[in-house]
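#help-structures
NK: newbie question, is this the right format to request a structure? protein is Exopolysaccharide biosynthesis polyprenyl glycosylphosphotransferase
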Amino acid sequence: MTAESTVPPPAGQQPRAAERAVSVLAPRRRPVAGRRLPAGRRGRRPRRAPWLPLALVDGAAALVAAPVVPGALGHPLVIVLLALGVMALNRRARLYDMAVVRGVLDELPALCGRIAVGWAGVAALSPLRPVPLAVLGAAFAVHCAAACAGRAAVDAHRAARRRPQPALVVGPVAAARPVAAALLRQPGCGVRPVGLVTDALDVLTHSGEGPELPVLTTDLETHRAVIQNGVETVLVVGASTPVVRAALLRDLAAYGCELWELDAGVPSYGFGRGRAGAGHLAGFPRRLLSPEGGPRRGGAGKRLLDVVLSGALLLLVCPVLLVCAVVLRIKDGPGVVFRQERIGKDGRPFTLLKFRTHRPASAHEAATRWSVANEQEMSRFCQFLRRTSLDELPQLWNVCRGDMSLVGPRPERPYFVAVFSQTHPGYRERHRMQTGITGLAQIHGLRGDTSIEDRCRFDNAYIDNWSLWQDICILVRTAVLFVRPTGS
């Protein structure tokens, strides 16, 4: 499932030995080289409204509803478990995310649904059963009413104390100024733009209607504005344009700013938003950006899935591995396993393992040639291994070791990472997450001699919308496609 097919190295590009190890991303949680963070500001996190009052309201709502069920007060453990269960479900649904301003009516379906799940558990598993359906319905209604009333009181208190927070708008002037003007016309949205961050060339070539806010064109000016105005919110408009520099966004995140992307273009009609959406700001759809990338929540689940499945698959395919190794040893001599340096998460190199199906003329060819020379001269057995992707099976050991994941962007050689990072926007961002044996691009047919630009788009879409369920779906679809002779 690698991209080693029929494309020669880019013309005019002469590889050097120094290109063996390529750092494609700045190390996580460190400022970009050359941009020192002021003392006392490093690592500061934005001040957020505490989520504890909402959690206490949800717990108290369970206590209010308990007396409706006869005998419930005699089983305090059941009520405590009900309250904790509902609170856990609410937290998982991000109903305690104070960065997203919602109303009680907006939360009502999600809140009532989780309360219903909690009472269903009480009815099915607790010593209070059997609970009459009418009593259960009454307890559910009281619980929902108490939770909504308490949350409304908390929201009203927050609204009375909330003041517009200073923010920077990052993006092209033609898009950033109208967005800033719209936010200034809506002071109730909780954000007050204090400056526009853009590129100096963009200021000369474009203009936009809007307020005369300071235009910041250098990193030093931007950092000074953050400190002087106490900026904790950064709004990114037109994130796909070259005006927005990933290094600057990482620096702003390191200062403690919260990064939001605003969709100021044509209506999205809700497509592709899914769980990444986080409501709107003054009518602009928005989503929380994570410059460090990769899944934070669920990362342990992804690693557990990798270890369990890769370990089980290694045991299952041991006979296949043994047969392939023996046949390769007999036909092609020693050196059954092929080792090659690839670039993994955050630009860290690792040694990838495969069955050797071809012997390159030199180490230079192995590192810098997109396709293998004289691929048609491989033995039929080696061609069979490549067509069926059986030559990739040793990478299960890379997954067990933690070098790779089962699902993720495919790793590439350092030379091509350097070349593609310069010619294809978004290629560096593929390395925000652990590389994998298969991925979203591969199940959409992007293997072998296919578009690098398309792979970047699919890989970054996978990272932006990552979920454990998506990994499972990709693995299932890979298993279905595994027997097709599409090559690697």
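mod (FA): yep, format's fine, and the tokens are attached above. Confidence is low (pLDDT under 50) at residues 1-46, 268-277.
NK: thank you!
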